[in-house]
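Record passed on here:
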Amino acid sequence: MPNIHSSQSASSSDSAIAIHNVTFTYPGSEEPVLNGASLELARGSFTAIIGGNGCGKSTMCKLFNGLIPQFYTGDFTGEVHVLGVPVAGQSVADLSRKIGYVYQDFDNQLVRPTVLDEACFAPLNYGLANYKELGERALAMCGLDSIHNRYIWELSGGQKHLLALAGALSLDPDILIVDEPVSQLDPQHARLIYECLSRLHAEHGKTIIVIEHHTEFIADFCANVVLMDKGSVLWNLPVQEGLNRIADLERMGIQPPEVTRAAIQAAQSFTRSPSKPLEDSQLFPTTVEEAAVYFKEQHPAAISALLVQGRPPKVAENMVQSRSEHENANSLPIVQFKDTRLRYRGLGKKEHEVIRGVNFSLHEGERIALVGNNGAGKSSLLRLMAGISLPQEGSVSVLGEITHRSSLEQLAGRVAYIFQHSAEMFIEDSVRKEVSYFLRTRRIQGADEQITHVLDRFRLTPLQERDARLLSGGQQRRVTLAIGAAMKPALMLLDEPTANLDLATREELIGVLDELDQHVRTTVIATHDMQLVTQWASRVIVLHNGRVEADGSPAEVFADEPLLRRSGLSLTQMMELSHRLGLSALCPTPEIFVENLRNLSFTKEDDIHAACPQLV
């Protein structure tokens, strides 16, 4: 997909969105979530809005379709125009014909029983005669045309996300807003979403606005990027320029794309003064295609040395240990599946088998990543380990107890299950009460000190008196992680823990997982985040159609490209760059790539030449 890195200047007459000096404060909050925000987006633009959790991204977008201030009440001042017309005086119903919106909590916007019913709902509700045709067209655009008659509750989280997008597309709106479009999708479905948005933008002239944490997708598909902080818009720039504002991004806890980080690290590494700041005018590559050209031009000797013709690619060694280093064949497994099958009964007593006779064991000290495409069975496998679901055939044993013979209360004291949907875990009226609930009900000694430590570790102390259900999606995710961390379980199960997280919180999560190793015997994460897998996991179990497709180290899994394609996975940007350059090793991180580049550069080039700056 071609990249569009040019910017359009927009005036009020040709703008899709224009807001001026908007301030908004939610009831009960002392600080405004929007604080003098101003922004103008041109018609037909493709814009990503970025910023840390709680900076006001989602709140600002709710201005555009009138939800603020018509439904979300609070203190509001400022002006909002959509397609050149003031929002004031227009109803949400009127605006919804012009603006399609896929919310972060997209589950709440699915209201009909079947897939086709849902896709047809909006045009039918508006009395359009061709409502069915519009619904079917939207489903086809989102790759859901083969599951028209499936019930909503049968779908995976990713399939529901795609369906919510289809529902938003069914009215053929001029503007489409998608809040966290890839947060619960496998990499292949995530790219499908963006390719669909790109077609709408390029072929139909739609104005696309995404709220996004994944800068790799922004680099590949968006034209402009808007940075927000503390309720204000800091800048609106072409993508390559914006993603090269490294100081601004780091201050907001946002990581530029992996290839950008690699290019910056290489530039610093190959100068006499690595600590010297780089020139602000220097634009580094943001996409894999740009990076492949850049490194061939800037470091030809090192790239030539890394090339080994005729060898299949392997994954370079990284910091994680292999499964064999952790497993003790003589020790009892923490979790054991034996011929395990799980079926859900649908309407009409039809059964759907989601786990199809799996056999494997998890051992103490392992860091297990469950990966696979949407609907592969990852969440179902976690629910079996937590004892929430019981198999119809075979068995599941957890910490030496068969789940059929253990109560949920017994398992809850030793197994922490962090749900995919954060709000499902909230039962109290404040963040502090949520985090302390388990410790208080079990009357665990030293609870106050532990709660204070966890709140501080997850940057929740300023939010501790707020209702968790009223926080942003990323803030809610941090609360659920804090709940699990406070329990200090023997077995920790996390379902998509990095979904909706900004990059700063994501890095904190990895630090907290390292800290939990002192208390947790085994950690299992179901995830679509391949960077998290390469950084953290010692063992990867690939699920496909309810079966174990592969089980091995990250190096073994990522070296098998047919497996990745078959299972809805993908290489990280750095691995893809290694592949594009024809390297014999797929480097999992920018640090490993640059280290290899530097070592070979100083081996193949004379020291004087290698020590000189090599940037144009």
About this structure: The CA atoms of residues 498 and 506 lie 6 Å apart. Residues 1-11, 317-330, 604-616 have pLDDT under 50 and may be disordered. DSSP finds 26 helices and 22 strands in the chain.
